[in-house]
């Protein structure tokens, strides 16, 4: 094994099905859901074998910390994507999660603009405690705060 990481944009039914199966097998707390919004998905590969999935969708301007941060940085709603899925199989080589995030960030900017005509300036994510976002912290993401946890 060479530990070569790569991504593939999901652009056909077979790739979306693979992303669905990986999500439903390896994500620790959500299942795949079709969303009526902007959405881009990537398959993650280690040595040409699929090991995970990453997805971006339309963003949320709530909680208020996000709306304030967007205003402070002059970022409009269409310039931010929501990281709706990021799951990887367990027992991957050290730092694989952060290495994949770097690949995502690089391609997400290009694909978002190609697909939607908007400049992607930020990516947001939400996580369910007790997860602490270590992979995002290692990739230098900015922590904005805790949501109230309400479902409505």
Notes on the protein architecture:
With 152 residues, the chain is α+β, with helices and mostly antiparallel strands. It has helices at 13-26, 64-72, 96-116, 134-138, and strands spanning 5-9, 39-46, 49-58, 80-88, 122-125. A 5-stranded mixed sheet has the order 1-2-3-4-5, sandwiched between helices.
List the helices and strands and how they pair.
Blueprint: E1 5-9, H1 13-26, E2 39-46, E3 49-58, H2 64-72, E4 80-88, H3 96-116, E5 122-125, H4 134-138
Name a few traits of the molecule.
152 residues; globular; 5-stranded mixed β-sheet; alpha+beta
Offer a quick outline of the entry:
With 152 residues, the chain is of the alpha+beta class.
Give the % helix: 25-40%
Quaternary state of this entry equals single chain
DSSP strand count: 5
For the record, give the distance between the C-alpha atoms at the N and C termini, rounded to a whole number.
46 Å
Q: Outline the low-pLDDT stretches.
A: none
Biggest beta sheet summary = 5 strands, mixed
Provide the residue-averaged pLDDT: 90
Radius of gyration, CA atoms, in whole angstroms: 15 Å
Instruction: Strand order, main sheet: write it out.
Output: 1-2-3-4-5
β-sheet strand percentage = 15-25%
Instruction: Write down the secondary-structure element order.
Output: EHEEHEHEH
The shape is: globular
Count of separate DSSP helical elements: 4
**Content-based structural category:** alpha+beta
């Amino acid at each position: 094994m060479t530990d070569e990481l790569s991504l593939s944009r999901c652009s056909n039914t077979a790739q979306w099905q693979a992303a669905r199966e990986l999500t439903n097998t390896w994500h620790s707390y959500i299942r795949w859901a079709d969303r009526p919004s902007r959405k881009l998905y990537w398959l993650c590969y280690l040595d040409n074998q699929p090991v995970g999935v990453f997805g971006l969708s339309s963003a949320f301007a709530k909680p208020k910390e996000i709306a304030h941060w967007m205003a402070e940085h002059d970022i409009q709603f269409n310039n931010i994507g929501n990281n709706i899925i990021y799951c990887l199989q367990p027992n991957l080589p050290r730092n694989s999660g952060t290495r994949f995030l770097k690949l995502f960030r690089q391609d997400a900017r290009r694909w978002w603009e190609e697909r939607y005509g908007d400049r992607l300036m930020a990516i947001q994510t939400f996580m369910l405690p007790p997860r602490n976002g270590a992979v995002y912290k290692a990739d230098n993401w900015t922590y904005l705060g805790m949501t109230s946890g309400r479902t409505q």
